[in-house]
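User: I'll paste a sequence; please echo it back and then give the predicted structure.

Assistant: Echoing your sequence first, then the prediction.
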Amino acid sequence: MQVGDHEICTFIEVSQDDKIELSFKIGSKFKDFLKGYYKSNKLPDNSNSIAGKTYATNISDFKKHFNRNIIHYNMMLFIGNTIGINLEEVNDKIVLKVKLNSIKAQTSEPVNNKNRKEKEKQQKFILIDFEILNQPAVNYSLHVYKGKDKIFDQVFLSAVTVTANKTPKDGKAPKLKKSDEENYHQPGKYQIVWVCTDNGVFDEKDDKQKLAIKIQATGVAKQIAIAEKEILIKETVEQAETDNFIILEESEGGEIKVFGSQIIERQKKFVSKIPKEIFDKLSEEGKLILNLPIIMTKLNFLYGALCQIHWLEGSKSSLKFPYEFFMSEKRVENIDRKNLEEYFKELRYLSVDNLGYTPSNPDGVNLFLFNDSIPSIKIALEKFNENLAKRTEDGPIGGNEKLINEISEWNKLKKADGRLDTKLLKEVFMENYFQAFSMGSPSGNIDDLGVAIGMYRPVCYFKGLLEKNTITGKWILRIEEVKCRFFDEFSFNDNLIDFGTIEYSQPLGCWHTETDKPKMPHYTKIHKPDGLTVCLQNMDYQELKITLSKSLPNSCNDFFIYSNNKTIDDDYLQKDIVIL
């Protein structure tokens, strides 16, 4: 009898006394497998003797093994047991295995962009965590059933890797060419993020309605592995996690989404770099500061959480927040327009006689003078006069503001002793800068805007036309456009105020230290019955920076937060202003 390369042929002879004699013929490939098995298990190579040997058993053991059901799998186990090889163990190593670990729901939506023209709707996801246990997979696919209906079916050609190990848990992965390794999904943990916002999965009201989730993976040798699990839709939705996101603007245009889960991962990565001996010596305030990115994320203060981890990481790079973020709370809604209205109200009327006009001249009612009793107007007036002294003709003014956006640019304006160079500073604030308004509370407000940046300010610029009155020699400015942008430094520097013998550092709120289920902070020191409330000040951040600098010298650095320029065009801006 001729045996194929991959085959093993079994001869079974049964005698009248219920004894059985077994003999085998084996193909060349099966023989090679035996040689490899003996070698890997450090056993004598018996591959040549198997074909010429007779093995004895009996009817009773034969029946007990097969239990009236002879199939390929238990037949191979029987052969393996007969020749002394544990084929079940071998099978575990060579057959692809996939395990479905967990299935959970998640929602996400943008935070604090209430005035954006195109607000993104809530996104809904099912996160499926599975594991390739012992062999590389060529690909994997997701199949979802609601009842008998298949509602999703897709092959994923690239894995979302959680952790991938080239050494499997319970065996050796087959040898792959280096050029092929990247085309396979190595043993390890993976996650599928199934976006199911619009297919009704989250809207199911039936308490007993289920989803059947099936992961199917194809192995290198074309074998198929399947892992399945059912979930109750209502229960899964009720336990859904949130992973909201914020939007940052890139300096050259475009937007970036930052998810809460990303902030938490960055926090874990940062803390993992701190040597244990240093971490253990940190004060409770220092440890709280390290945990604030997590606490703020779970309170949905994502902009604040991002600022905290960005400061800890110490990159010094500025963050550009959308203009709408600075208007995102009710207390500051339209504050840019309101402040500008107040500003222009403070400009007093000029006596038209001083310009040679008569009271009947209709143009006279639009003329204002800067009220130089207002400090900010006085500074702007001095800047105007300095720039106008260089002017020799009428023409446009403004639109050429030089904006400082990075700490490195700001540092170039400083002298050797660290103080700002007044001359260089004037070159930055060009002739069209005219006002900045302080907003917010020094200790912050209990919302994302407050915990992110505390006090902040819009800086205002204008564009218009200058015309010199030939009779009076005065310059008259017609404002055509006003721009506002927000700008602030994220830092924890104190100007300590000495009240007798006590120096105060700026308070930054009292925070509950629990990270699993954090509570809202408050801004008054109260009794701590649970011992879990810690009140922070600027000095706590300064002390943490000093401590961490010993092992992480580039951590804990200040940075700028700013917005794009927004044009504010309104009737109250169309005024002629006389420059003294």
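Confidence is low (pLDDT under 50) at residues 164-181. The first strand starts at residue 8 and ends at 14.
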